[in-house]
Amino acid sequence: MLIQCTKALLNQIGIKHSELASSGDYEQFPSSFMSWHANFVSLDKGKAIILMNNETRYPIVIYKPKKKDLFKIKELICEAISVALRMEGVRKEVIETYMAKAGEISFSQTSGRSMVAKMNNAVREIGFMQEFLDEETTIQRYISIAAGRLIQGSGTNEYFYPYEKMLQCLGIVALNKSEAVDEVLDVELYQLKIQINLEGHDIWRRVLVPSTYSFRHLHHIIQTVFDWQNYHLHEFVVGRGENERLLQIVMDDDPETMEFVNFDNVEIRKEQFVALEDIFPKYNVVSYEYDFGDSWEHTITLEKVVKSKSFQATYIDGNGERPPEDVGGAPGFEEYLSLIENKKHPMHHEMKAWAENQKERKFSPEKIDQRLKRTISGYSYSPFSC
């Protein structure tokens, strides 16, 4: 495996010019797939090594490496690539085959201007996505998933997503098949039942979610399957054993979220850095609260674990219509139902008109699955049924 380094990175890892391999022709497949460009850069939050695969332009980030990390840079790079691919649901055997065929790491200078320009673009994109940089870890787990889904151009009016091209190339190199993306993947899915805790009402959704998805992804999924409008704050809570502190998994988009947290009584973690597999199946039940005013509490239960060749969330079934947004919590919901059912009430038509933009829209299972495909990149409520 060839790591084509900028001068800044070569200086950091202490590679002398006489120790460099020839950069050769690593822009043509399959050699291009066995090589990565790498740079040592300053981001707003700290220093980072950014790797970009020559063929697929899939990015990987090693964040705030210490001196001891630089002494074992080869091992660190191999681990970072393996971790990123595993987070995408790639089979362990496929990763091992790719690493074996790529061979031992050697270092060279960067190649032509074209590859340097592509690497600079990868650095720029990472710079725009620093919310996914986990201060607590060196090998970043989630920024590759996010950045790998930014569309790239090839210069010949052809466009592609790095993660898709990465899976295609892994199939060719590791399995010797041109159409083998499903065989590349071995995804562990959690079957989750998500129920709104509302007395007298049976409102729930059942979904399959990849175990490496983060709790931020799960938030997007919950918003999607209930058609919540994502207008309010939220948090997850994990009730642990008697000798363990309560675990709150929180968003940090709004300063108020962190400002009022009691760090003495609970452990706090940010949702974009916590994988579902970090919590499940050790803890089978997690609480999710959306809208701290209306306080819509959901109970998330792990029902079973299944294997799949698809790295995406899927809707299974559900029951009941969720309460309208901003209806006033449980008491307001009961009042709303009473007014809607009583056509003679003077506020019936007014309430019905208000609810048109607040209640859950009806989507087919196929439409829900289509919307769920986009939750890995985020969730923004649209008034249009798309």
TrEMBL record:
Residue ranges of every copy of the DUF6933 domain listed in the record: 2-164
Protein name as it appears in the record: Uncharacterized protein
Annotated InterPro entries: DUF6933, MM3350-like_sf, Plasmid_pRiA4b_Orf3-like
Annotated SUPFAM superfamilies: MM3350-like
Pfam families membership: DUF6933, PRiA4_ORF3
Domain of life, source organism: Bacteria
Domain (Plasmid pRiA4b Orf3-like) ranges: 189-370
